[in-house]
Amino acid sequence: MARLAVNIDHVATVREARGIDEPEPVLAAGLAELAGADGIICHLREDRRHINDRDLQLLRQTVKTKLNLEMAAVEEMVRIALETKPDLVTLVPEKREELTTEGGLDVKSNPDHYGQVVDRLKGGGILVSFFVDPDPGQVETARSCGADIVEIHTGHYSEAKGETEAVERFERIARAVERAAELGLGISAGHGLNYFNIKRFSSLPQVEEYSIGHSIVARAVIVGIERAVREMVALVKDF
Ligand code: PXP
Questions:
Q1: Alpha helices (H) in 159-213, listed in sequence order
Q2: What is the mean pLDDT of residues 51-60?
Q3: Engineered SS bond to 130: which of 48, 76, 142, 155, CB 3.0-4.6 Å?
Q4: Residue 197 sits in a domain of what CATH number?
């Protein structure tokens, strides 16, 4: 039985579009937990475009399941992680100009650096996951750097045009998952997964956890708008 961890970044994205105090990502996290989520994920980006330091503090104080902090493997973030102590850190690549995380971490490009970051985080009692492309070589290097978990990047699969490409990209994911399982790593998957393209993963029981944000927040807007409008209509109708 796989677990679901919910990424609440885009609740904060809507808040930041107005620069005010709603919607509150911390409330969304609590409701996600009440709905059965097994974990809450947030990405503290260098530019604080959605989640900010205050959100992270409050999430640490309130999340009852498991708090997974996505972050770049840079000094500022390592320091924040060691102070905040999320249950898990997921190391991701980060570019200022990107709309969202664009690819997996190229662990092979600098294993010494990533190994040192892992040692520091684990020294602080934090589990470490590496977000990697579905490439068995990256999975192996993540393992040798001391990763506890690999999160396999499903973004390319989610962007596949047509069934043939989707099958081919899913098979790459399956091969990377197989290698991670052989190495005894914890296995997650995420990025771009939605209510349709997730179905194929029923054939991959080795994936223990799914990390999903955008499609859940997008659906929340659509399934919630009717109720939200009814509530405002009720307020104004007798004016
Ligand atoms: N996993 C990682 C490492 C991510 O960076 C993101 C996006 O923040 C996700 C999962 C969730 O992706 P999505 O929002 O497309 O569900």
A1: 163-182
A2: 98
A3: 142
A4: 3.20.20.70
How many structural domains comprise the chain? 1
Ligand 1 atom at minimal distance to the Cα of residue 193:
16
Sign of CA dihedral 221, 3, 166, 160: positive
Please name which of 115, 104, 130, 105 lies closest in space to residue 186, comparing C-alpha atoms.
130
Do the Cβ atoms of 196 and 215 come closer than 8 Å? no
Q: Which of 10, 50, 191, 209 is catalytic?
A: 191
Task: Residue 137: give the domain boundaries.
Answer: 3-236
* DSSP code of residue 197: G
Half-sphere exposure of 49 (CA within 13 A, CB side): 12
Convert the pLDDT of each residue in 125-177 to its tens digit. Answer: 999 999 999 999 999 999 999 999 999 999 999 999 999 999 999 999 999 99
**pTM reported for the whole predicted model:** 0.96
Is the predicted pLDDT of residue 48 greater than 70, yes or no? Answer: yes
Give yes or no: 156 in active site: no
Q: Ligand 1 centroid to 67 CA: how many Å?
A: 14
Nearest residue by C-alpha to atom 6 in ligand 1: 191
Per the CB < 8 A criterion, the answer to whether 65 and 82 are in contact is no
Helical axes 111-123 vs 75-84, angle rounded to 10°: 20
Is-catalytic flag, 113? no
Check if 214 has its Cβ closer than 6 Å to any atom of ligand 1.
yes
